Fold:
Amino acid sequence: MLKIKIENKSDFIKNITLAILTAVLLSLSFPPFKTGFFAYFGLLPILIFVNRAKNYLELLRYTYLSMLIFHALTLFWIGGWTSKTDPFMMLGSIALIFVHPVFYWFPFVIFFFIKKHLGNKTALFSFPFLWNAIEYLRSVDETAFPWLTLGNTQSYYLPIIQIISIIGVYGLSFLITVFNVLIYTAYKNFRYESFRFTLNKLSIIVIILVSLFIYGKVILNDAIYDGKRLRVGVVQPDFDPWEKWEKEVNPQIDVYLQLSDSAVQKGAELVVWPESALPVYLLSGNYPDEVRRIKNFCREKNVAIVTGLPLVHFYYSREQAKKDSRVSRDSSYYYDTYNGVVLFLPDSDLIQEYGKMNLVPFAERAPYLHYLPFLGDLIKWSVGISNWSVWDSQTVFKYKMRDGDTAKFSAAVCYESIFPSFNAEFVKLGAQFLVVVTNDSWYGKLAGPYQHKKYAVFRAIENRRWIVRSANGGISCVIDPYGKTIFETNLFERTYFVEDIYLNNDLTYYVQYRVLFSYVSLIFSAVFFFLALIKKLGAKKDESNRSEE
Structure:
């Protein structure tokens, strides 16, 4: 009879306790909790476990358990879990919570491999690079999901995070991982009564944090709002995210135009509506009267409107269509649908368009659909938000302000706002401020809407740009280039507000060299891995030679 050897009861209890401790500490580091400092030592328990793990199987078992619990505690809100929630949304959240922890195996397994062949000190030195490299790689693929980037835990600490205009949120993650390694080495030496060494390690953390705090305070104290002023209005209609797809579009347009008119009366010359504000393909040619209503409003009120909107593009030959374009039922044409944003102008009939490029894996689009088109049939929501196509390139919107100057801005759609490098590219393309349109009402008053809003703070600071955020049911807000929220709405209220923002053309160090830090981590990770691999192969060769003698 086959017997599987497992650790004794004492080791089992220690291992599972360490795994759960890391999961809880990391979960409590993320918004809406204001205990982001837990991240500074949240990895300590799992590092203790990894350094006492006996083999790879044990390592995989407990690191997966730890990250699974972490994901369940931090991302349970993704399922919505209301009576109206689409079952596919619930299943998708369960799949994400169970599958995504697998990605965290890589830093731990490679760390364990380096430790085994190059020693513990080298492994500990490599760990921040390994963690940072994996975090970056999780943001660049069609399965990308960078929601749990460690740097995202620090959104409440404005002085400390001003440094990300230089190093970005991934640089912040790197520092947090360094803190964990230093605390681990301090803990390990304290056990062996090396108090001076322990104090030295902890003092390094204090010096870094104090330096970041002083730097941030100087930046915040010297903060000024310069550049061309623009008065913007933000509309929060608070439509039920499930029911609005079944209702007539004109009553919804009435609500938007009424709220927008109130904003215009307070001086707004640009009004922002949320993601998928109108639940129809408004520009498909089937809604000429509704389009005319919005255009006439813009012309009469001398106001521009930027709004989230489903888009559809038709192709009447296979050559025009994309590889993964869908085919009509009668096979007479091809088409693509997009989770889009459009800009209505007061002085032009031209409607500028942009479509979402970073789609939520499995929720909005099956990954690698251009290679595996049959997967498209798996994404079938009960409302019109499934299986979107990917837009071709990033778009910067342009419009002529009332004083004749041109304002340029980007419009990230929902999930796109959490991608650091992606939003920095908008700025490099000329965006003077950043718009975010979203619909977080699917998640009720769970953690999701609060986390999503707080992550916008990082995009403001990284790029030193104003953020204008319109969310269907909240949280809508305006954030200044230093991460300070100038105004925000409550969840689930129908409202609008008007604020002044300022256009900025300056480029931060992060915008200019946004992937440098991550590439350095990738290079160092590869070097450490291959050095360990060479050492392992060399040891095998020596052993083989000795056996032959």
